[in-house]
TrEMBL record:
CDD domains xrefs: STAS_anti-anti-sigma_factors
Protein name as catalogued: STAS domain-containing protein
PROSITE patterns given in the database record: STAS (PS50801)
Domain (STAS): residue spans on this chain: 10-101
The organism's taxonomic lineage, starting at the top: Bacteria, Bacillati, Actinomycetota, Actinomycetes, Propionibacteriales
InterPro entries in alphabetical order: MlaB-like_STAS, MlaB_ABC_Transporter, STAS_dom, STAS_dom_sf
Organism, scientific name: Nocardioides plantarum
Length: 101
């Protein structure tokens, strides 16, 4: 898992699964400690598992309780389906895709 931090945006690349959750969790909470609004960009994530999504859901819940916001960007169809199947879509904020004219 590669994590590039650009201010309040974390760009993830690679496989986001149980092996990388600790690393991502630390990066997300550090970003939330420094910024009120944080974006986690999943555009270049090849695969994601339920454990990884639970990390993002827990961070999102904690951010909301603290008056902050965590938004997921670049969620592909598989990620969106997993969010819906697990009902985590109710917990996380997913950025809408831009509509082309």
């Amino acid at each position: 898992m590669d994590i590039v931090i650009e201010g309040p945006c974390l760009r993830l690349a690679g496989d986001f699964d149980v092996r990388s959750t600790r690393e991502v969790r630390v990066a997300v909470y550090e970003a939330l400690a420094a910024h009120d609004d944080v974006v986690v960009d999943l555009t270049h994530v090849g695969s994601v598992d339920l454990t990884a999504l639970r990390v993002l859901a827990a961070a999102s819940r904690g951010a909301a309780r603290a008056g902050q916001r965590l938004t997921l960007r670049g969620c592909n169809g598989a990620v969106r389906r997993l969010l819906h199947i697990t009902h985590l879509i109710r917990v996380v904020e997913v950025e809408r895709d831009a509509v082309s004219a």
